[in-house]
Amino acid sequence: MDEKALLGLIRSVKKTGIARFTRFLDPAESIEFERDCKKNDVTPSLWGGYEDAERRIGAVSEDYLPERSEFSLVLLKSSFDSRFGSISHRDVLGAAMGLGLTRDCIGDIIFDESSVYLFASEQISTFVMEALSSAGRTKLHFVQMDSAARIPPPKGEYFRGTVSSLRLDAVVAEAYRMSRSESSAMIHAGHVKVNHVPCEKVDVQVEEGTMLSVAGHGRISLRSIDGMTKKQRLGVTFFRYT
């Protein structure tokens, strides 16, 4: 979302006192959204349909936080027969884009063994249910789900490690099983993202809950900091997304 459009929402909120909403924001846009709202003395909030959503709708308000039911998003689900092939996030998103939809009207896309869940803005949900009938060679039929429907947990695995400190270069080295010099080189080259935003500073402190990604090596989150070991190193628990 560009700054001009956001400032327009902020002016409207200050004039009317009524909360205004963005379309779906990607993680980097969400960070900018919160920063710019606070800079302009309005209250930001974000919701993408479930607690760990990456793509979220932003709300701008003055005196209250909007209820989640006020965010204009809908959860859609389609089952598919996995015996006859698999589909990916790229397949579903590509099929949606092929219908003329823009990325900012679609939120997270999540899979389990034989279903795909898609968050969409309420305005285009009926169109998606009627028109998004396939992805690749896989047939789909989306239906609207209750907002309290259970979302499949992310696929991946937990693993533990130890670090000398919570500096970015130390954490990346441990998480991705590389040397400290290799992790420093990746960071300086701009190949590392922290919470979806590129970071080239090796001494940035990593916090619990931080999402890391290294180009060509996937995504890993720091799930917990577990205290000091007998060797005076910090024990940590990671989650590797698959």
Gist of the model:
This protein has helices spanning 3-16, 27-39, 89-98, 122-131, 168-175, 180-188, and strands spanning 20-25, 43-47, 56-61, 73-79, 106-111, 115-121, 134-135, 138-139, 143-144, 156-163, 192-194, 197-198, 211-214, 218-228, 234-241. It is of the alpha+beta class.
Shape: globular
CATH topology tier name of the largest domain: Structural Genomics Hypothetical 15.5 Kd Protein In mrcA-pckA Intergenic Region, Chain A
What structural category arises from helix and sheet content? alpha+beta
Compressed to H and E, one letter per element, the order equals HEHEEEHEEHEEEEHHEEEEE
Beta percentage is: 25-35%
In DSSP terms (H or I, runs of 4 or more residues), the helix count works out at: 6
Please give the order of strands in the largest beta sheet. 10-15-14-13-11-12
For the record, the count of structural domains works out to 3
- Could you describe the largest sheet, including whether it forms a barrel? 6 strands, antiparallel
Q: Please report the first level of CATH classification, the CATH class of the largest domain.
A: Alpha Beta
Overall radius of gyration: 20 Å
Q: What is the first-to-last residue Cα distance? A: 29 Å
Q: Count every beta strand, where a strand is a DSSP E run of 2 or more residues.
A: 15
Q: Runs with pLDDT <50, length 5+? A: none
Overview of the molecule:
The protein has 242 residues and is of the alpha+beta class. It has three domains: 3-68, Ribosomal Protein S8, Chain: A, domain 1 (2-Layer Sandwich); 73-144, Alpha-Beta Plaits, CATH 3.30.70; 156-241, Structural Genomics Hypothetical 15.5 Kd Protein In mrcA-pckA Intergenic Region, Chain A (Roll). 26% of the residues lie in helices and 33% in strands. It is built from six helices and 15 strands. The strands form four sheets. A six-stranded antiparallel β-sheet has the order 10-15-14-13-11-12. Helix 5 packs across helix 6. The longest helix is centred in the first third of the chain and has 14 residues, at 3-16. It starts with a helix and ends with a strand. The model has no long low-confidence stretch (mean pLDDT 93).
